[in-house]
# Entry
Amino acid sequence: MSWLPWVGDDDKDDDEKEEELEPVKLTRFDATVELDKVWSASIGRGLGRKYLRIRPAIGADRVFAADGYGVVEARDRFTGKRVWEVEIGDVGRSFNFFDRRDPSFVTGSVGFAHGNVLIGTTAGEVVALSAVDGHEVWRVPVGGEVLAPPVGGADLVFVQTEIGRLVALERDTGVVRWSFENPVPVLTLRGTSAPVFGNGIVYAGFANGMVSAIRAETGEPVWEHRVMLPEGRSELERMVDIDSTPVLAGNLLFVVSYQGRLKALRTSDGTPAWEKEISSFLDLAAGSRQVYVVDNDDSVLAFDQQSAEQSWSQEGLLRRQLSAPAVIGDYVLVADSDGYLHVLSQADGSFVGRRKIDGDGVRSPIVVADDFIYVMGNSGSLQALQIEQR
# Structure
């Protein structure tokens, strides 16, 4: 709320306050790598005006992408050639001058599991499409809006809803095998983390600051840990949402909460190995024995996975509304609201490459498969890129 005239440091003049709120301007650097575009395609009508972050998904030799209005496409991930296109709903295409509401209804990022493409909607449905030809396999209600990609594990599909419900669906029919409920605070961020599956356990973070480990086959809780206790007098101050998808690395689970902490939890019993005071709502990334986080000010931070020692901090992208970080090779990738894709060195966080991707900006998480980078811009531009040394 610092933009309000009565909030902030009164000793600073208006020019100083305005400068503090502006995104940091990009500076020149000596690039050592180039981002080469392999192919690009336009997916439907884009992501609309609802701050959607719909990322694509990879399945074998295909990439699956959706817009905010129900268009789902499968493309060859090496050439960009369209394999199939379907629509999972009808929002109408006529323009009404007196009704400017955005009719987008696809909210959960694209998931891929058990040979199906999985889509979540504002209506609280999960739609499964065949990855082969796009025909609808099943469509089921899950009792709440789906804001994160469905995830597969064992013979199930795991879906998390905005009402604090984790649901396990049968892979072939979508029938609910079990559900796990977690209370939702009065005020929360709009978003949820995606569940993570590993070694027969599904891990999920919730809006009340809890992370739970649940036995995938039965829905039986194994352990729970509170990442952050709500603090403060107002509901705004007490928000401790875990909207960031946890990251599994060996025997540690990394999780971060809004207005809270970054923690490394032991997967055996949920006890913390270490913690840091950090606030973030974006997904984490891991690589080179480090964990990477973008905090609320858009600083990119790297921590040693075992010792918690901060390896580096990159503050050259402050307030540029970054995407979640992604790791490829020796590099960390982030995109910003101006549509630039930035390449940082995993060793020290320095800038080594940059490319403009989409004039409308990039919010969606970056997807990496082999040596390919897939970026979905807000306009609906899907690009496949590779990093080349200069």
Summary: The first strand starts at residue 33 and ends at 42. Helices lie at 14-21.
